[in-house]
Specification:
The chain is mainly β.
Length: 202
Amino acid sequence: ALVFIFSIPACTCGGIGPKPDAGSPVDSGEDASTQDAGPRDASEEVPDAAYRSCWDEAPRLNDSRAAFGATATPTAIVVSGGFGTYDGGPFASMSSTEAYFGGEGWVRLGDMNQRRDAHALVALADGRIMAIGGVVTPINFLNKAQILSSVEILNLDAGSWSVAEPLLSPRLYPSAAVLPDGRVLVVGGRGADGEGPSAQLF
């Protein structure tokens, strides 16, 4: 599974680099009447997007996965679950977890208690990681998918998951955010009865 890191402003793949700052004549505060007011050649115009540098390849994940959860703490990037094939097995939801601590590659952590994909993953204020809802994609799509209300919390130092209080209702593709007071807000997603405007606080 390929991973790419977007570098601003430095990069190694030929990006243009940082945009000129206020030191340029146009931004220096000079009286506009003293600047050349003549037409500029179109070739001189450089769009803002060109100053966004470029992508560099990063270490690959251990497992190829799609529809997985991803979040970041001050010390690590964590991904969990998703669906795919790994260890030569069939196509299905996954429980595996990996973390990138800025070294040479991704480190395997303990598996979640529940296989899941299309879930939310957030970093709590104390550095733990919460996996919320999602769905169990059946092996090779042979059975009906199960939308989940279960919640788990990862202790990043120990590398292990523990079961937490479940959602009030199952949610597939929920959105989640940690509020300034440390509570977790979960909104939207899809339940067993279709899309809904529901919101829940943990």
